[in-house]
Amino acid sequence: MFAHTVLVAALLPLTLASPLATRNMHVLARRSGPPAGFSVAGAASPDAVLNLRVALTQSNPAGLEDALYDVSTPSSANYGNHLTKEEAAAFVAPTQEATAAVTSWLNNNGVNYTTLTPAGDWLSLTVPVSQANELFGAQFNVYTHETTGQQAVRTMSYAVPQTLAAHLTVVYPTTTKGKAGGKAGGKANSTSSASGVAASCANTVTPACLQSLYGIPTTPATQSSNQLGVSGFIDQFANQADLKTFLTALRPDLSSSTTFSVQTLDGGENSQTAQDAGTEANLDTQYTVGLATGVPTTFISVGEKNQDGDLGGFLDIMNFLLNENDPPAVLTTSYGDNEDAIPVGMADNLCNAVAQLGARGVSVLFASGDGGVSGSQAAQCTDFVPTFPSGCPYLTSVGATTGNSPETAASFSAGGFSNYFGTPSYQATAVSTYLKTLGNTNAGLFNASGRGYPDVSTQGVNFEIVVDGSAGTVDGTSCASPTFASVIALLNDQLVAAGKSTLGFLNPWLYSTAASALTDITSGDNPGCNTNGFPAVTGWDAVTGLGTPNFAKLQAAAGL
User: Fold this and answer.
1) Among all residues, which ones are annotated catalytic?
2) What is the distance in angstroms between the CA of the first residue and the CA of the last residue of the chain?
């Protein structure tokens, strides 16, 4: 997904020996060979410049988790009393000892660095390959993707001085693969002329269809402080002219000039050249602006400058929002990867960044993926493939449904159980009940003690959108995440208008007070890995989660 080509002046003869192999170093990560699909082209030029990120050991992530649940659990006395930026950052700030040790090491080696987060737990370094090899006991080589020809500079192992072993947890991009798995959805089905508002969701999904199906109001929001953020990656640009065409055809009750604002990071942009319009970016903005009526929406375009890492985009947008005093109350992201493509340390750090946002009152939603039980996209497999970051317990993962009489699980809706994160307390009962229902079905193919996903779902098939002036339809959990995010944004508007706090981290509320406000999906499955995948059943399941939204019931569950 976030593939990055590092420009290399020349390839040198391949040398596999580590320059610091005999020194007192602590290995942080090692892999036995290149990722699938990549081959070694040669050693990276010693003068090639690497943009590296270094994660310092966080002081109290367990305390952050406790604080997150304290402000997110309806039965808690502190429910809705969200943390400030400084309060959230304090839990993950490294100790003074750790900061002093790491920065002293960098200074002594003449390495310039910048602090990336309010907590100071991430530093950014720019160093030549020769120095990176020396600092991290590494051998950075150029790896070429055998199908795309994309090149990336990586190492098969890296280390830090033994004296820093307790203070550093991750350096990247190092052992991660050069090309991640792709967006969660948004596959184009066909093109046609704009059709106008469909009477139902039977054949084509439109804003009017979703409003009717889920009871989503058309009354404009009133609270300008309540913001909705839409993530954009891999040069997917959201086109304002296409949005105008979309609104004219499918939301004629809205002004066709209604649009979104834009923020950029990592050299991101949002080209308005017609042929640069992105299917994913247009889908996400058209179904947030077009559903969350009147909620100020921001398209956050993440570029590739200074990123150079497989999770760079995800980490950078979370850190970008953590640095804001007033981040959007809802963030929807329609991208993902397979969990096994991400080192555990990286996954932990990203998940803790999401936890900070949640503790501050931000609802973070991700599409679950489009490969059923085979991962982010359909692939050959034996054991089931969890997706990432849906396995992170601090975000809300959104699966997909289809049909409306009744709704059923979309066969591509990725769902399952994380191999990295255990079952969180808020879903322990729901998951236990589901596992009992499964019995021996798929036994041994998944981690029965893992965090289950998705959490919720909405429609995800035949969404009508406009791209480069032409209408067509798309499928994917990419359709579902902005839909559910719009529901939450409208609820937040009403909460703020009533003088209450935003919903923030949703899951403890969804699995308790709001569980009965969701329409249970009890048919369908998500095939993959030569199996039928997981079945949708009564109650939570690993295809559609708790079910689809009923706006009026969710209002009541939110105390409105």
Assistant:
1) 280, 284, 478
2) 40
